[in-house]
Structure formats: structure tokens, C-alpha cells
Amino acid sequence: MLEEPEAKRARFITFEGGEGVGKSTQVKRLLQNLQNYSIEAVRTREPGGTAKAEAIRSFILQGRSESWGAGAEAVLFAAARLDHVTQLIAPNLRNGTWVISDRFHDSTRAYQGLTGGVDDKLIAGLEVLALDGNTPDLTIVLDMDPEIAFKRVAQRAIEDGLALTGDRFEKEEIEWHKRLREGFLQIARDNPERCVVISAEQAEDVLEATIWEAVSERFPELQGRADA
């Protein structure tokens, strides 16, 4: 069977990083930029993306799984990911639609593995099961000092008139978040062919432009395309 031409391949891009670094905003902006270049793309998130995965997301982020330990949480994330890959990610990629995900398997490695202490062999086994070969083509790691990130989160909450209530992971101590940050940086160092680390301590518009530069450099089919 002949391989699909390079220019027609759907790409799978993931965003990773700690809490409050601006992943969701930049996922939306990248989606719009791709669509401006006539690239059919969808955005999604983890845990979530499908009805079953969203139910698991709610269970975890409400803290209902915390007492079970990081190992059990890793299994729950893998279950959500398996449904996400099977029902949303893989079908879109097969149909030629790019997929941009706010978090993916690296978050389990960073949160439950490198920070939570879950054995690497268990994490790797869960990845084999859940990914089924659907490894991202590019992972953008947004990096920021956790203390700065949480100040930004607090400021946004004040501006929006919202109560500052953290989810299951946002409530962890700052030292935990510093270890988490190092976990993501370690993943990037271990996977230089896939991961690009970008400082999130930039204005949103500047960060958007930096991300677009990294994406267009990685994928030749974006170079020279005219806006739609």
C-alpha cells in the first residue's frame, strides 16, 4: 500500500505544561491560525474530549480519586485516553483532519509518573494500551515559573469577579508544582525530536506568534500557504 503524500497527512499536536500557563488560550489561537491557512482541524482536551472521558475528568478533578493514589489516577486517565483516541483522535486523523489537544499522555507522565511517583513501567504500559500508535507529531511545552502562573490565575479571577477555587491538582503546594514543571522539562529533554519548549512568560500575542513559528517550521506543508 502506497504511503499517503506528506502534504496531505493530518497532524497531531499537543500542548503540555503546568497549571495556569495559558494552554487553552493558545490551543484556540493555533486552531484559528490553522483554519486561516485552509487546514481542517479540531481542538480537544484531556482528560475529556468524549462523553465517557469527560465523566472521568469530572470525577478526578473533583478530587474523588485522590484517596486512591497516583497509580489509580494513572489508570483512570488511561481509560479516558483510550476512549478519546478511539472515538475522536484516531478517526479525525484518518479523515485528514488535524487534531490539537490541550494535554495528552505527557501529562500522565509528568503528574502521576515523575511527580506522583508511579512506576515508569506502569506508565509506559498504559501508554501502549491507550495511544494505540497515535503519538503526537509535535508537543508544545509551555514553560512558566509556577509562582508567576498562579499570580496570573489569581489576577484573572479577580478581573472576572470569580472565586479562586482550585481543582484536584491546582490545590497542591507550590513545591509540588515546581517538581511538576521540572517533570515536563525532563520529558522535553528526553524527546527532543517531538517536543518544543516555549516560554509562556510572554504577552499572549507574542506567545501565539512564537508558537506559530514553531509549528510552521515543523510542518513544511504550512510554509508558503496563502491565507484563506
UniProtKB/TrEMBL annotation:
GO molecular function: ATP binding; dTMP kinase activity
E.C. numbers: 2.7.4.9
One Pfam family matching this protein: Thymidylate_kin
Reactions it catalyzes: dTMP + ATP = dTDP + ADP
Keyword set includes Mitochondrion: no
UniProt xrefs under InterPro entries: P-loop_NTPase, Thymidylate_kin-like_dom, Thymidylate_kin_CS, Thymidylate_kinase
Binding site for ATP: G17, G18, E19, G20, V21, G22, K23, S24
SUPFAM superfamilies membership: P-loop containing nucleoside triphosphate hydrolases
Keywords: ATP-binding, Kinase, Nucleotide biosynthesis, Nucleotide-binding, Transferase
Family, as annotated: Belongs to the thymidylate kinase family.
Function: Phosphorylation of dTMP to form dTDP in both de novo and salvage pathways of dTTP synthesis.
Name assigned to this protein: Thymidylate kinase
Lineage, uppermost ranks: Bacteria, Pseudomonadati, Pseudomonadota, Alphaproteobacteria, Hyphomicrobiales
